[in-house]
Records
---
Amino acid sequence: VAPRVQLATTSCRSLNTYNHFVGGSQSTADSTSSSPPPSLREDAKPFTLAVKDNIATASLPTQCASHILSSHPSPFEATIVQQLRARGATVVGKTNMDEFGMGSHSINSVHGAVKNPLADDGDVSAGGSSGGSAVAVKLGDADIALGTDTGGSIRLPAAYTGTVGYKPSYGMISRFGVVPYANSLDTVGLLANDVKPIFDLIFSTGLYKEHDPNDPTSLQEATRKRCSESSSPRLPNLSQINIGIPIEYNISELEPSIRDAWIAAAAKLESLGAQLVPISLPSTKEALCAYYVLAPAEASSNLAKYDGVRYGIRGEGSDAVGETLYSEARGTGFGEEVKRRILLGTYSLSSEAMDNYFIQAQKVRRMVQKDFDRVFKLDNPLYEPEQFDLSDMAEATGMEDKRGPLQVDFILSPTAPTFPPRLDEVQGQSTVDAYMNDVFTVPASLAGLPAVSIPVKPAQVWLKIRNTESIALPVDVGSRESPK
Ligand code: GLN
């Protein structure tokens, strides 16, 4: 196991008590970078930025919280870091995470678990995999933090720490310089203590318009234009807005007080003039299973390059060739969860299992996309609707088609079904139970849709009432009073 590295910056007030920063030697990394610093834009405003450890920076190592990349300096900087530096960002540190983004609690890290500052003893999950980024903004160590979200990794830590976590549409923010986990799902997004700084960066500074020719999945100019034309970033007033409440999200595992908060949030929006519309997204039930087939399949392919030759560490048998070299590098370099995903993915892509797992999961993914298309007013700008004629899919799978007419502007749902669990509870959990935390976040990922997690109550309040029975919450979910 790599020794825990020191935080590279001295500007962080919380001194890494919550193990949210990882770092390295600023000077070594600087000298290896070939990325010139971007020139400041005229509208640049200074702000501090924490960067998840799977996003390449010029000045710090990029290790994905993995032993296999220990001390890996990136030869270039991610486009998004350059874009933010041009807008005034100063990078204050790299943040701890689940290794290669695989996990929901930021515990699968070579640096140890991230701790949630909302709990008195810190022994509560900060959510994952971008837990370090969420904690960095929560503690005020950074104004903005960059995270990645493949199936919920920005939104879940935001929910568990009481911060705002925004995952853009697939392809909107460049992934150039971001270490891939599952390419067809990976997105880069932002965390902050409030909506405004995120809104300002994305919309006011025009980040959403910038195509990156270095990222083949970056949305083309024409698609971006189509998006802007079909939607107005500044909505006139809530009375013209329909908000969908997906009935399938009211699952039995949902904690009663989270259900109450969901109802209270909906009631608040209704009192401000929005129309609430019950909607059905019937494929939601299958989305989690499909995600946990597709994401490991893509991961098993992506992680093949960490073989001790192209990337990765060399062990004692470094002079050996072939299998010994690979198995030593991968056996000692990857953590348990990453190995589990590689095995899962390799199996579901094998010729004996492909039809039953990978192909089925792709079909479910299309159904999830189609569910959203049926309820949203706007077309999904990421693809032409006629590309997917799946009207007979529900019939083919025997699933009931209960979807309503096209009518909704937004969908409102809880981000997670439970409060953040204690770290010892998580450690005792089965793998499948741990995957359950993502049940509400993966559908948007499978469909490539944008999503944002916003706290409805100071998170300390939630922590205090966890494990209690249903509590009738006052309907003041719009308030932003200080948690302290
Ligand atoms: N928890 C999910 C997983 O482990 C999502 C991770 C992510 O979004 N990077 O795959």
---
Amino acid sequence: MLHFQNYINGHLVPPHSGKYLPDIEPATGQVFAQIPASDAADVALAVQAAEAALPAWRMLPTEERGRLLVRISELIERDLERLAEAESQDNGKPVGLARTVDIPRAASNFAFFGTAAQHFASETHFQQGVALNYTVRHPVGIVGCISPWNLPLYLFTWKIAPALAAGCCVVAKPSEITPYTAFLLSELCIEAGLPPGVLNIVHGTGLAAGQAIVEHPGIKAISFTGGTKTGQHIAGTAAPMFKKLSLELGGKNPNLVFADCDLTEAVATSLRSSFSNQGQICLCGSRIFIERSIYEPFKQAFLAGVTTLTVGDPQEAATKQGALVSEAHLEKVLSYIELAHQEGGKLLAGGQRIYLSGRCAGGYFLQPTVFEGLAPDCRVNQEEIFGPVVTLTAFDTEEQVLSWANSTEYGLAATIWTRDLNRAHRVAHALHSGIVWVNTWLHRDLRTPFGGVKNSGVGREGGLEALRFFTEPQNVCIKL
Ligand code: NAD
């Protein structure tokens, strides 16, 4: 049995309470590790360590901070295989996905922000003969980073790296459901020589450790990725304390397939955008709207593709679909499949839990599931399911599909499939969505603003947006 520890003031330490929580492997249903059940006392120690580290860290030249972050990136690359296996064991995702997406991206996050901060410049405003205004960007101070279970190391480092690059010290909490790679990261930070207290990783539940981070008066900004309800609760606590907030929340993303698209490409990518990571990516397109004239050919090709998505042991190379992250989450997704039947949907594929044999007999596996015939305003088409369940709906006009696409409370990401350049721009601009992909999906450039509108969140991550979030602008005005 593995025993993870908190990373506080440069050391791996047990929780103050001495209590631990079980960490379950989703593919087997078995406990494989114990994680610290941290609380406010551990967070207080972490903040104390961060306070002690902050004066030196913020004064360190940006190049030197960058060098340390690049070193961490190199160590992640060196340990790619070990980290990918850990991520797969902890989350249930196919190890191939962790090896090609999650872990390389975590390495890129450190390399990108370690170097991006060196190109971060502030503004001057010159009024001839009157005044010169210039802006200084100071690190916010100590910041809290709280991340979810679906892309554990990838999203954890997406917050930590820009915060550190900007000169902040960090108290971070990974999801208690997938803490393994965050623990391995703490070992790599020690090896890289990150000064004690600059990054502190506190494990534990949202209600105990997470809430303590949000409430601590010494923490000046919260960067959170997770569910919309949790985001609302965090905002309720942090806003009256005037903390800076970045909230990356849920989604119910539309995928618009126009008749003039490259059908082969649209089908292949829509299979990925529907079922990658068992549909547990906030950017997955779960509502697929298809122009009526190509509805049948799209549907037939899509369903043929679904049959090739082998569900199996995440450790095996042939596996395309691993386990859902937990039994509770599997039950939630199954309840939406039941609801889809009740709401009059026609099941085209999947719909059942899968019981594998051998090592994975107790795992949380589900068939990739496709429905049609559901109204765009029904609950299944409005609420975030966050699993391998998609709906197909035919549309007749651009106006109609836009109104359906924009009809949910969310606005994170959308995809458009068309060869008509004018339409691509027109539809993209009319979508209520923080991110729009045209003829692609999950194509990421780390310089671009990342985040959603409506209940998908507040603020943007990525590139300069993240560096701005973790700094406070100060204007200095000099009379000329
Ligand atoms: P969650 O909201 O349950 O938990 C996220 C994190 O918040 C965890 O670390 C949890 O321990 C912590 N937390 C819970 N309650 C807290 C509290 N009161 N105070 C402080 N921290 C608290 O979300 P989840 O189930 O882990 O992740 C799935 C959700 O995340 C989905 O809704 C998905 O859409 C969303 N998500 C969004 C993005 C994005 O970029 N917009 C990316 C990935 C996932």
